[in-house]
Amino acid sequence: MSGPARMLTGDRVYRIHWMPGTDILRGVCHCGAERVAEEPVELWEWLLAHPQGHHSPVPPAPEVPTRTAVPA
Amino acid sequence: MAFARNQWYVAAYGSEVGRELLARTVLGEPLVLYRTGAGEAVALADRCVHRRYPLSESRLDGDTIVCGYHGFTYDQTGSCVFVPGQQRIPRTARVAAYPVVEQDSFVWVFIGDRDRADPTTIPRAPWLTDPRYAVVRGMAPLNARYGLLVDNLMDLSHETYLHGGYIGTPEVANTPITTEVDDERGIVYVSRHMDDAECPPFYARSTGIQGRITRWQDIEYHPPCLYLLHSRIAPQGVYPPAQGEDTEAFHAEIVYAITPSTENTTYDFWAVARDFAIDDESVSEYLHQSNHTVVMQDVTALNILEQVIAAEPEKYQELSINIDTGGLAARRLLARMVDAGRVEATR
Ligand code: FES
Ligand SMILES: [Fe+2]
């Protein structure tokens, strides 16, 4: 058994699940849009851009992962 | 990193504020704290309006502070009630008084526009005053910017490397996390649920568990100041019942208050509240000693990191990986709070 995946219960919760046994992250928006990525910077950017680019009911194919450097 | 103004911050433990004057600098603002005869905690600007002498270097006379340089005397609202040698007290003779709330053993102060201070927005850490919990705690001054402590606490995979032999075991760094952000309420939640993990000495010695454990770490960060780590330790394979109390497990509520002092210094308030062996003094002593050691391992590392970053050009680059998912979310909420505080200030 694994722990509960949802701890926060608000109406505007964004989630990123790190899929067990993989390096894959799955982002889930409160609107239902989903997307996978291999690093968190790009995935947060996509999630937090809601509703931009969140219309598709089918999750878009994972993009070629790029290592993005972030200014602190 | 800039500061988030118009927010509540922990300036001290309630037990630190008494009839001695206490100096603390929060978000670059020097404060003097004391307690009135009636028991009320007071925070005033720590600079006399006359010639800027620190009031914290002065003395209390009843509930007033008498400046140690020329005797300007201030009441608990910051109003000057006496100046030497003359009857007339200049109209502008007052120091700022900060909104103060004592809650969950902390003294919270509001830094910003005092009309915006809403005590109901202060996040809670009720275990620190709950008689069903035993608490050990401390405060470590950090010679590093507060953002480094936020990064540190949001990613506990560092326990495996920096705190091996205390709280770190291989499973911490190896177990995937789920990260959640409540955008409206401004909370970051990071769950790391280890089903089958080695028991680190910190918990083996305090709980008496022998063998492997099921270890849950649930971080709840309420930026800017309050960080909660809900730690659940149970013999391997023991999960909470569908209903009722989770009596088979040991719970530790680990609380940090992260208070920016200056651009490059931070107050690191830490507390460990536990619901087991609450009357056992030797467990308290052990956990205090161990957690102090762990905190100082972080302090040492972050002080080094501060030196490195301070010596680097502005736009240095770093690389984020999966373990940083929670830290990145925290940074974003903080940046938003910093911006909001700025906009309000210029209105
Ligand atoms: S500096 Fe305080 S009275 Fe002169
Ligand atoms: Fe969305």
UniProtKB/TrEMBL annotation, chain A:
This is Uncharacterized protein. It comes from the Bacteria. Residues 53-72 are annotated as: Disordered. It comes from Micromonospora gifhornensis.
UniProtKB/TrEMBL annotation, chain B:
The keyword Iron-sulfur applies. InterPro entries: Cholesterol_7-desaturase, Rieske_2Fe-2S, Rieske_2Fe-2S_sf, VanA_C_cat. Keywords: 2Fe-2S, Iron, Iron-sulfur, Metal-binding, Oxidoreductase. The keyword Oxidoreductase applies. Residues 8-109 form the Rieske domain. Pfam families: Rieske, VanA_C. It comes from Micromonospora gifhornensis. It comes from the Bacteria. PANTHER family: 3-KETOSTEROID-9-ALPHA-MONOOXYGENASE, OXYGENASE COMPONENT, IRON-SULFUR DOMAIN CONTAINING PROTEIN. This is Oxidoreductase subunit alpha.
